[in-house]
Each structure stands twice: as structure tokens, then as C-alpha cells.
Amino acid sequence: MAWVFLGLAGILEIVWAFFMKKSQGFTLVTPSVITIVTMIASFALLSVAMRSLPLGTAYTVWTGIGAVGAFVVGITVLGEAVTPARIIAAALIVTGIVVMKLSSSH
Asked: Membrane-crossing residues (predicted)?
């Protein structure tokens, strides 16, 4: 179950990052509230996952899901640039997540 909680925490990290961008520096109420609520939920799920997963593994996977997910949302929803360097960087993050997951005994 820890991995499920961690995956959900990572997805919520993508959501709060997106809505933080949409909040225009916390000047718009609805996106700001969504940011804060999903941020709290993401941290809560991460903390539950950390009960049984190693700190380094849980935190690395959580931030990796958020980073790559925000990268994909930025490209697909916000029209951000797709460059070879950015794609390589995202691929390296995904590789790191996979290696971290495989190296965990949990």
C-alpha cells in the first residue's frame, strides 16, 4: 500500500504545481485554494508512505513523479517548449525513479 500512497502523493504534487502556476502568485483564490489543499494531501500521503518506505526512496520517487509530471503538463497543457535537452533530462529522472524503486527492498 505504501507505493500506492506514494504514487497518489506524486500525482497530487503535479496537481498542486499546476494550480500554483495558475494562481498567479497566489493572487487568484480558487487556484490558490486548490494548490494548498492538494499540497497538504500530497504531504500527508507522502508521510504515510514513509512509515514503511526508506526516506531517500520515498522522497526521490515523490519528487521525480512531480517533476516529470509537471514537465509533461507544462508541455501538453501550458504549451511549454519541447527541446531535446528537456526530454533527456526528464528521461534521466524517470530512469532514476525506476532504479530507486528497484533498489528498494519494500
From this structure: 27-46, 58-79, 85-103
Name the packing angle between helices 2-22 and 29-49 (round to 10°).
Answer: 160
Q: State pLDDT tens for residues 59-97.
A: 999 999 999 999 999 999 999 999 999 999 999 999 988
Half-sphere exposure of 89 (CA within 13 A, CB side): 11
CA nearest to 70, candidates 5, 6, 22? 22
pTM over 0.85: yes
3-state SS assignment for residue 1: coil
CA distance 2 to 53: 7
CB 106, CB 2: distance < 8 Å: yes
What distance in Å separates the CA atoms of residue 39 and residue 33, rounded to the nearest whole number? 10
